[in-house]
Amino acid sequence: MTTLFFSTVFRYAPNDQAGELVKFDWEKKEILKRVTVGPKTLRIDDPNPRGNSRGGRGIALVDNNVIMAGFCELQVYDQDLNHLSNITHNLMAGLHEVFHDSGKTIWVTSTNLGCALQFDTETGNLINQHWPQEMPEFQNCWDLVPLKINKNEDNRLQSLSKNFGKDASHLHFNAITVWKGQEIGLFNRFGAVVNLSTRRVVVEDPSIKGAHNLMILDDGTIFVNDTRNQGVNLYNMDGRLVKRIDLLPFHPAGRKVKQYKRFAPIRGFLENRGLIQQSAVMPFFVRGMDLRDNLLFVGISPAAILCINWQSGKLADVYNYTDDTRIAVHGLKVIENQN
Q1: CA-closest candidate to residue 292, choices 233, 246, 335
Q2: Per DSSP, what are the bridge partners of residue 295?
Q3: For residue 289, which phi and psi values (nearest 5 degrees)?
Q4: Do residues 305 and 280 lie in contact, with contact meaning Cβ atoms separated by under 8 Å?
Q5: What are phi and psi of 267, to 5 degrees?
Q6: Nearest to 6 by CA among 86, 61, 85
Q7: Which pLDDT tens digit goes with each residue over 11-45?
Q8: N or C: which end of the chain has fewer CB within 10 A?
Q9: Is 258 helix (H, G, I), strand (E, B) or coil?
């Protein structure tokens, strides 16, 4: 039995109803359980309807517990999705992806603040952190400056009122993994994969700006979701693109992408002037990824999961959760041999 845990974001929904955590039997295509997720440690009044603090984010399995990131917390569930506890911290602001390193430790990316934080899941203590915009090697690459915050203050809600996207410190640092004992991160703003331990740029590909998710095989093959171009890119540790998997042919929503992009400039012009409502989300927004041997599981919007043989590039299977484009997959974790 292959069990999937996936989280969703529901754009334009109230914060406490703006996403779900789902347990799913992949072979039977059966929902085993789902729970609505929302903030549990803070009351959040978020004026941005397009996501921001809404829904569930990255997922990891630690000691048989399912840990899902929310905007400012890690929510801990058992495998029947009963809520057990929360871990929060004053530097948890805009969490995206999580990575279970070893034992009881977990890495999270605090995307609004541009840092990676490592926590002990048993005590909730912060035990390690990376601030790439403070590293001279990355400052020189992209003219970065340190973020002007007090790291000892509560930065969780403060970050909602700030426009980090145009800040000279902003990386949109949204994913982290560990490869051969070294922490590797993804900077969405620059389309860059970096080695935080050695402070070296591994991949810089402007064509994948806006990317999500990062996984690395033992042999150094790097998987990145090319979110805005609807694909998955594979790189080697020399930064060379070795393969690209185009996802558009694998789902009916792919037919809408060309039309969406064709009218994007006009729509953006009208949205910026308040003449039409802001679009919920582009069709085929690619986010959420996990690997099991030669099978690659990828999430999209409207919320669906594609299963691809990444070696052949062929679609193996697909599951459509909804036809509502406002609902997108965010976190995704695949587990084998669950009873």
Answers
A1: 335
A2: 292, 309
A3: -160, 140
A4: no
A5: -65, -40
A6: 61
A7: 877 777 889 999 999 999 999 999 999 889 988 77
A8: C
A9: helix
Please give the distance of CA 198 from its chain centroid, rounded to a whole number.
24
With a CB cutoff of 8 Å and minimum separation 6, the contacts of 4 are 22, 23, 24, 26, 297, 305, 332, 333, 334, 335
Q: Which tokens belong to 161?
A: 């009122």
Q: What pLDDT, in 10s, does the model give residues 100-129? A: 988 899 999 999 999 999 999 999 999 999
Q: Which pair of structure tokens corresponds to residue 25? A: 């039997």
Q: What is the pTM of this model?
A: 0.93
Q: Which residue shows structure tokens 């974001």?
A: 9
**Strand ranges of the sheet holding 314-320, from the earlier edge strand across to the other edge:** 289-292, 295-300, 304-309, 314-320
Burial 107-134 (b: 16+ CB within 10 A, else e): bbbbbbbbbbbbbebeeeeeeeebbbbe
Contacts of 105 (CB under 8 A, 6+ apart): 118, 119, 120, 121, 127
**Tokens describing residue 85:** 């506890």
